[in-house]
Design a protein that fits this description.
Keywords: Membrane, Signal, Transmembrane, Transmembrane helix. The protein is mostly helical. The chain has a domain of 43 residues. 67% of the residues lie in helices and 0% in strands. It contains 4 helices and no strands. The longest helix has 29 residues. The termini are far apart.
Amino acid sequence: MALILGSALALFAGVTPARAANLASQPDTQVAIFMVPLTLLLLVLLFEAARFVRRGTLPAQISERPARSLRWARDRQGH
């Protein structure tokens, strides 16, 4: 749905494939294409960290359980 909407908006704005290719070859556009998603990811991570700090508790953690012994040597001796 978003692809169709984006394509329709681009056509209405007069963007042609040749113009889009010319725009994509510019260094500023390439930097923006890399940095915008990276910045959004960083902002989401900061938002989630702030939520945990504001709440004051961490999500439920797995309780500590004793390590189970594997007894490999005894099992290989004929059991």
